[in-house]
């Protein structure tokens, strides 16, 4: 299951980046592009960090960050 979520979060980030770079090249498109790339690529990075947590509490705490970034 852990590797499944790692793969799915990487695919999610990749699709978001592809979407972002195809947005219109205007002020709003550029703003959304940057935000979408930042938050979507942080999902797999933060999930990997959560998996490396030293305790169950650390895992849960870091997983909360993953959820916040995905919601953004």
Description:
The chain is mostly helical. The protein has one domain (2-71): de novo design (two linked rop proteins). Helices cover 85% and strands 0% of the residues. It is built from 3 helices and no strands. It starts with a helix and ends with a helix. The mean pLDDT is 91.
Main sheet summary:
none
Radius of gyration computed on alpha carbons: 14 Å
CATH architecture: Up-down Bundle
- pLDDT under 50 segments (min length 5)? none
CATH topology: de novo design (two linked rop proteins)
Query: Could you tell me the mean pLDDT?
Result: 91
Instruction: Give the number of DSSP strands.
Output: 0
Give the H and E element order.
Answer: HHH
- Measured as a percent range, the helix fraction is over 70%
Shape: elongated
Number of helices: 3
Summed up, the domain count is: 1
State the secondary-structure class.
Answer: mainly alpha
Cα end-to-end separation: 24 Å
Oligomer: single chain
- What would CATH call the homologous superfamily? 23S rRNA-intervening sequence
Class in CATH?
Mainly Alpha
Beta-strand residue percentage = under 5%
